[in-house]
Write a structure and sequence with these properties.
about 775 residues, alpha+beta, eight-stranded parallel barrel, six-stranded antiparallel beta sheet, 15 helices, 35 strands, about 25% helix, globular
Length: about 775
């Protein structure tokens, strides 16, 4: 979920600069360009007080020093980026706030890690010795609470709760009083504000009566006698994550809501065979409104009941691990559904922010998303969210998270009506939501301390520097960010510019527009690019001809031939030049047509556009098979040569006139020819190392639906002195060597250097 589409990576440490445009939501321009003035820290404390947060003390002159004599004060990142220097005091302030909150938690709760075991205390817990069930709820502003449900005939007078210190209510029930699977709610008496029934905030399951339009959700007491036992360990963290973004509910070929077990048995094998080492699951946290794509979460600790039970989800994760695939959860801590009847928003009934999960007034409401915003400096909010993270890892064995809507968290303006230009003052100013940033630092610090192999990815469109640096270096602690400007760039090209006018230098500028000290996950399209009102990349390229022109029984039309060629090239270019990992949305690897549209009144509650047409990819008479085969080969190449994670990346040519792009990534050399009809025979390209090179991947190969104009059996030998090197209008130092290749129009080839040992073996074999 995105706050704004505008995105620019800060100029320092990026190889190029570009600004992509908003797509679905119009945003007013007028960027914030504030610079810290004398006394800014006092001003920030004053603002914090106004927002209900305790002012932070002035930064001490006494600094912590590590074993190497390096000062640990949140400013270490300045050594990597000199443009951070004017914001030294801001970095120190947020790091000190992080240390102060971490120390306070440790003082009161022993450690952040134990603090994040809130799910062992709150909600429903079962005493292992006696079998008694205790239910606890934080509701300091309530006059009274009572537990109701099937077990007591929904009688509020039967099970009153008592209030303990710090606003926590509790009640203990003898073993057998409440049955596994029975429905429960809590009745909240709010004095003059009335009384109402709510689903427990820490509830681990919520369900709705099937087949009843508009029926409300009920909490469910979930304590099965036989819990799922995991059989497979988590796979190790890969050098580069190849991420398959998936939505379980819409993963069926049939027009229906699919289940966790169906996804595990039918879709996970496809993902593993396809070469993806990670699956990112959307819409797992319970959400009452299916059409929200899972982003309007109502019950953060509950598994979406549409697709099955908590034990079914565990089966899915375990099955993935058995296939060597890691599983990331799309976590939503940036906001919560404003649905008070079915979700956590119901515990805000007009009380002060200090007694609520959410901020007061505008601080607690996202006007564009119509959702509630957490108050990240509240003690129990920190417990709730940190425990939520640990719960999903401990209970379900998730291997990491993709944090949704991070931009909304980082700034008080939530990225709305903002044009992020790369000016550092936009990132470190009074507009920065330090409380939210500190929460993210606490979360990442805890997760990486407890789980060294975990991967945590940020969805941020602003490009905030230090977001993906370790907390120990003064960063926010994410492992990587989504390279969100790349899909916007491709959509803009597809919408506004015919490919004969595509600019090679603009491609390089966009794809290399990232901070080299902070990892990025590149992608052509995610779920964002497929939702109703837009189209998949394949549909942009081929549109209505996909309905009639994808059969291999007929010669392809110009539109189909062009579309298939560019679909492959865009993906290979993005995967090889755009980041340190790669992502695709379910089905788009084979060129899924059309768009995604969830069942709603406007489409007569149809699932026709809320499913995945696997039958198209499986049909041996349709051209979708070629796109799928290429996607597998592209990812297999990374498995063999690790080009996505390689630090070496050098663009030697971006020729806008000839539509040629040549670069090195890791041990491979990539040659792209985007010309519509010009094939270059004997094309002279520069390479970094001398020797013999061989073709290892060709988008034009027959198995990928191409014309097979290049030969895989041809050896390419280098000679000294590379040709002149230009990237757009900028001259580069020529590469030390050159070789000659065939470069067909609308195609891309990848070459590898044959190492000396292989050459020696070949010579010995020939001699023998």
């Amino acid at each position: 979920m995105r706050a704004v589409r505008a995105h620019t990576t800060p100029r320092a440490l990026s190889r190029a600069k570009t600004t992509s445009t908003s797509r679905r939501r119009a945003v007013a321009r007028g960027g914030l360009r504030m610079k810290p003035a004398p006394g800014w820290q006092q001003d920030l404390n004053a603002r914090a007080s106004e927002r209900g947060a305790a002012p932070t003390r002035a930064i001490s002159d006494e600094s912590v020093v590590d074993a190497d004599g390096v000062v640990i004060d949140g400013t270490q990142a300045i050594a990597k980026d000199a443009l951070l220097e004017p914001h030294r005091e801001h970095l120190k302030y947020r790091y000190e706030t992080f240390e102060k909150r971490k120390a306070a938690i440790a003082s009161a709760e022993s450690s952040v890690e134990k603090f994040a075991l809130g799910y062992e205390k709150y909600g429903f817990t079962v005493d292992k010795a006696t079998g008694d069930v205790t239910y606890r709820e934080w509701a300091p502003a309530a006059a009274h609470l009572a537990l109701i449900g099937d077990f007591n005939g929904w009688n509020a007078g039967a099970t009153p709760m008592t209030k303990s210190e710090f606003g926590t209510w509790e009640v203990t029930l003898p073993k057998g009083t409440i049955a596994h699977g029975s429905r429960v709610k809590v009745r909240v008496y709010a004095g003059d504000r009335g009384e109402f029934d709510r689903i427990p905030a820490w509830c681990r399951r919520a369900t709705v009566e099937p087949g009843v339009m508009g029926a409300g959700y009920d909490g469910v007491f979930w304590a099965p006698e036989e819990k799922y036992e995991f059989k497979h360990p988590s796979p190790p963290k890969p050098s580069a994550s190849r991420i398959y973004e998936a939505h379980v509910g819409m993963s069926s070929n049939d027009p229906k809501v699919s289940t966790y077990r169906e996804f595990a048995d039918d879709i996970l094998p496809r993902i593993a065979i396809g070469g993806y080492n990670t699956v990112q699951l959307m819409a797992v946290m319970e959400h009452a409104y299916y059409g929200s794509f899972g982003y309007h979460v109502t019950n953060p600790f509950a598994v979406s009941s549409r697709s099955g039970t908590p034990e079914d989800l565990k089966y899915l994760v375990d099955k993935a691990h058995g296939l060597g695939v890691r599983v990331l959860l799309d976590i939503v801590h940036s906001h919560a559904s404003s649905n008070v009847n079915d979700g956590i928003a119901g515990f805000d009934f007009g009380q002060g922010a200090e007694d609520s999960y959410f901020g007061a007034g505008a601080d607690g409401y996202h006007w564009l998303w119509d959702s509630r915003l957490y108050k990240y400096d509240n003690w129990e909010v920190m417990r709730y969210l940190l425990s939520n993270l640990r719960y999903w890892v401990e209970e379900y064995k998730f291997d990491g998270f993709r944090f949704d809507g991070v931009t909304s968290m980082l700034y008080h303006h939530h990225g709305l009506q903002m044009d992020f230009t790369g000016d550092y003052a936009q990132y470190f100013s009074m507009a920065t939501n330090v409380d939210a940033v500190v929460y993210l630092m606490l979360a990442n610090d805890m997760l990486h301390t407890l789980y060294p192999e975990i991967e945590v990815i940020a969805e941020d469109v602003s490009g905030m520097p230090t977001l993906c640096l370790p907390v120990s270096e003064g960063g926010v602690g994410f492992d990587a960010r989504l390279a969100m400007s790349i899909p916007d760039f491709w959509v803009k090209y597809l919408k506004e510019r015919p490919d004969e006018h595509w600019s090679m230098s603009e491609m390089v500028s966009t794809l290399c527009n990232r901070r080299y000290t902070e990892k990025a996950i590149a992608y052509v399209e995610s779920h964002d690019q497929s939702i109703v009102g837009d189209k998949t990349t394949a549909f942009w390229l081929m549109d209505a001809e996909m309905y009639t022109g994808m059969s291999t029984l007929n010669e392809p039309s110009f539109v189909i031939e062009r579309g298939i060629a560019l679909h492959k090239m865009m993906r290979l270019l993005t995967a090889s030049l755009g980041g340190e990992g790669y992502l695709t949305f379910m089905g788009n690897e084979f060129g899924h047509p059309e768009w995604v549209d969830f069942p709603r009144e406007g489409n007569n509650w149809s699932h026709d556009y809320c499913r995945r047409r696997w039958d198209l990819a499986d049909a041996d008479h349709l051209r979708y098979q070629f796109l799928l085969a290429f996607d597998k080969a592209m990812l297999a190449l990374d498995e063999t040569h690790q080009y996505m994670s390689a630090a070496h990346q050098h663009v030697s040519s971006a020729d806008d006139a000839r539509k040629l792009l040549v670069f090195e990534r890791g041990p491979l050399v990539f040659v792209f020819n985007f010309h519509t009809n010009e094939t270059y025979e004997g094309l002279e390209i520069g390479v970094g190392e001398p020797g013999k090179y061989q073709l290892v991947l060709d988008t034009d190969a027959g198995e990928f639906g191409g014309a097979s104009r290049c030969g895989f059996g041809v050896d390419h030998f280098t000679t000294p002195d590379g040709p002149p090197s230009w990237v757009g209008p900028w001259e580069q130092t020529p590469r030390p060597c050159k070789m000659f290749v065939l470069s067909p129009a609308r195609s891309a080839q990848v070459y590898r250097r044959v190492d000396a040992a292989e050459v020696a073996t070949e010579v010995a074999t020939e001699v023998a």
